[in-house]
Design goal:
alpha+beta; 7-stranded mixed sheet; globular
Length: 747
């Protein structure tokens, strides 16, 4: 009897079976793509080769369908040190320092396994940051769920919040902000977008490239298992209620191990940066994507010995080893002969650190396993999926949209304000983000709940402001203008804290690009974001695309999330949204129009958003933001709050809540305009001693500024309009605002 161990590959389908039974189609490869692979290889691909092409040619890894849109982004100005194409983007913030940031989506995994899907989303984006040599200093999130009257939605929401908190809190990175909204279109496909921000000295910046023939490829971090296998292909397909979701495609995270990997990686860069050529996170498509992309970017080749890969399960095949998305793993390229100190550093931290291959100079991607070469393909062919030509078509809802603005029914302004404050998208999210550690590292200045999060930069007078924003209702009605507004709102939130917006990242969440109407939405959104980014001088330096967000051919609302970072040169300029004291005067910056199509009041009163999106004035937006930032920097502003969902009425109430103050306000307009969502507006409060100086500042500026009234000691919200009034105690309004979501979650 033979004692020779069987080869785990013996049970894999043969190349002939793969072709005949079209097994490749289950992984997302089309017949045309498979034929291209066969033609290029001059033979049928084996199981491993078919698998790695399915991973690298998935939309999630290759962006083959979104690249024609992404090429339209504007990504360069004098601050940009690293634009799209690496783990994260990098901007110069002076004094030899740089800010590093990126956003990622983990939508499909979070629907299947909400806790692990969200947790590993946090872990993945953190690795993108420290792979660039940066110390992560903050995470933010942008979340979308179905309506809270759906028990499944409540379950998913609970799991996602717990996953974000469980991972971020354990690793010791503060959650500084984000946003959450609710709509039926996300019931079968929630969105979990996570952004991370880091700091790096410019002389310590890293890139994910495998340069230098003969240099050593080192695997560090956790062992490889069978979790998350071919998750990239899983993330590149829509859901169906008729088919069971694939839980094996969801990874399992360990934040305590991630902390070890993060600290060891940053220490290795500091100590042995001259020896380290490149670093990349093993994210989507795991070892496959990290190794092949690093070589492709450098114009080199790769040879890996898969027998050396640390494994936590027996008999892993090459297909499994390459396509596993086990978490907490990194790939380093280190100069030949200088590997041992780097390996020793990781091993001293209790981590695996193993040489698994070499950089070659022939542009080939070779995998060796049990003494034979199981893959030998051209690396550029592997990493550059063919780009299909897809059609675009304007959706009927936009083509035939009613140009007239919805006219809200506001017979009782007090009642309408109370109803709006209870809408889940507007209501306080404190019951959710209270689970997040917001002050670990002790640098947090503004916690979640304000316009943007703010963290100070130690050893300097500087701070960073950061936010995530998008109103998908606006994009649904007009993807170009709605995307402009998403960028504008993110910028307004930065300005409201006293920051100068300096750059942005994105998560582009859409349905299937094979639908010409969805593909139209994607292209229009990118063009809209680009136009506004240029106006605001906020280049797009990184980002993520998540397509196929739909169930049973019902797509989500187009959701082009914008993550933005701002620089505050002097900590004294940090500004909050809450009214400070009685007697402070209130001002509205910006002009109010009848802007109701796509608004919260339209959805609340009709059950949907419809019609042609209201007008957007990009030049007025920029002028208003510059005015507010200069007024803050001049020391004239006690508080600043941008106007978004719910309009002026909601913004005034939100600013009164923190210090339990009241307001006495009058507007020379119909009550309905209190709930208009015209873009580009702020509410400012000014100390009485500064009113004269502020008025002079206004006269010198060419922006519309209207005196509204004042902050009062009496905790009452009193607003007089042309056709009615609001009279509501601050305490009652605040209770409605704070308890709306907990009540819905308890149902």
């Amino acid at each position: 009897m033979s004692t020779q161990a069987s080869n785990p590959m013996d049970n894999e389908p043969s190349p002939e079976t793969i072709a005949a039974e079209k097994i490749y189609a289950d992984w997302g490869l089309t017949d045309h793509e498979f034929d291209l692979i066969v033609k290029h290889l001059g033979r049928l691909p084996n199981y491993t080769e078919a698998g790695i092409f399915s991973g690298m040619w998935s939309e999630h890894c290759s962006y083959k369908k979104s690249k024609p849109a992404l090429r339209k982004f504007w990504s360069r100005n004098d601050r940009v040190l690293q634009g799209p194409g690496e783990g994260a983007g990098i901007l110069d913030i002076g004094d030899g320092q740089a800010v590093v940031f990126k956003a990622e989506s983990h939508n499909h995994p979070s629907f299947v396994e909400p806790y692990e899907g969200a947790a590993t989303g946090v872990g993945g984006i953190l690795r993108d940051i420290f792979s660039m040599g940066a110390q992560p200093i903050a995470v933010l999130d942008s979340l979308r769920f179905g309506e809270l009257d759906n028990p499944k939605t409540r379950q998913i929401l609970d799991g996602v919040i717990a996953g974000i908190a469980g991972y971020g809190n354990a690793i010791g990175i503060p959650n500084l902000g984000g946003e959450i909204a609710f709509d039926d279109s996300y019931a079968g496909n929630p969105l979990v977008n996570v952004m991370s921000v880091g700091l790096v000295d410019q002389d310590a910046m890293q890139v994910g490239q495998a340069k230098g023939s003969g240099n050593t490829i080192i695997y560090v971090g956790a062992k490889t298992g069978r979790d998350g296998i071919n998750g990239a292909s899983f993330a590149s397909a829509e859901f169906s209620t008729e088919e069971a979701a694939d839980r094996s495609a969801v990874q399992v995270g360990d934040p305590f191990l991630e902390k070890l990997v993060m600290d060891a990686t940053i220490e290795a860069i500091k100590k042995y940066g001259s020896s380290i050529i490149g670093i990349q996170d093993m994210g989507a498509a795991g070892l496959l994507s990290s190794s092949s992309e690093m070589a492709s970017k450098a114009g080199t080749g790769i040879r890996l010995d898969l027998d050396q890969v640390p494994q936590r399960e027996a008999n892993l095949t090459p297909y499994e080893l390459m396509l596993s998305e086990s978490q907490e793993r990194m790939l380093l390229v280190v100069k030949k002969g200088e590997e041992q100190p780097v390996i020793d550093l990781f091993k001293q931290a209790g981590l695996d650190a193993v040489a698994v291959g070499q950089v070659t100079d022939d542009g080939r991607y070779r995998l060796d396993y049990h003494g034979e070469t199981v893959t030998d393909v051209d690396i550029d062919f592997l990493t550059h999926a063919p780009e299909p030509k897809l059609d675009q078509e304007m959706p009927e809802r936009i083509l035939r949209a009613n140009p007239n603005q919805y006219q809200p029914v506001v017979e009782d302004g007090t009642k309408v304000l109370k109803e709006l404050l209870a809408q889940p998208t507007i209501a306080s999210k404190a019951s959710l983000f209270r689970h997040f550690d917001t002050q670990v590292r002790a640098d947090t200045v503004i916690k979640p709940g304000g316009d943007a999060g703010v963290t100070r930069i130690r050893g300097t007078k500087k701070a960073l402001s950061m936010t995530t924003d998008v109103n998908a209702h606006y994009l649904y009605l007009d993807p170009y203008v709605g995307a402009q507004m998403a960028v504008a709102e993110a910028s307004r939130n930065i300005v409201a804290t006293g920051g100068l917006p300096i750059g942005m990242t994105d998560c582009l969440n859409f349905g299937s690009p094979d639908n010409p109407q969805v593909y139209y939405e994607l292209h229009q959104a990118v063009e809209g974001m680009t136009s506004m980014a240029k106006e605001l001088n906020t280049p797009v330096i990184s980002g993520n695309v998540s397509l196929y967000n739909e169930t049973d051919n019902q797509a989500i609302e187009p959701t082009a999330m914008v993550g933005m970072v701002g620089l505050i040169e002097d900590n004294q300029n940090i500004t909050r949204f809450d009214f400070k004291q009685p007697g402070d005067r209130l001002y509205l910056v910006g002009k109010t129009e009848d802007s109701f199509n796509g608004s919260e009041i339209q959805k609340m009163q009709t059950g949907k958003v419809s019609g042609r999106l209201f007008d957007f004035d990009a030049l007025a937006e920029v002028a208003n933001q510059k005015f507010v930032l200069k007024a803050i920097q001049a020391g004239l502003v006690a508080s600043a709050h941008d106007l978004s969902e719910g309009g002026l009425g909601v913004a005034l109430a939100e600013s009164a809540f923190p210090n339990d103050l009241g307001i006495k306000v009058g507007i020379k307009a119909p009550m309905a305009q209190l709930f208009s969502e015209t873009s580009g507006r702020f509410v400012l409060s000014v100390h009485p001693d500064q009113v004269d100086a502020f008025d002079q500042f206004v006269e010198a500026a060419n922006v519309p500024v209207t005196a509204l009234g004042e902050v009062t000691q009496e905790p009452e919200l009193k607003i007089l309009a042309q056709d009615g009034q609001i009279a509501l105690s601050t305490a009652e309004a605040k209770q409605i605002y704070q308890t709306a979501i907990p009540k819905l979650m308890a149902e």
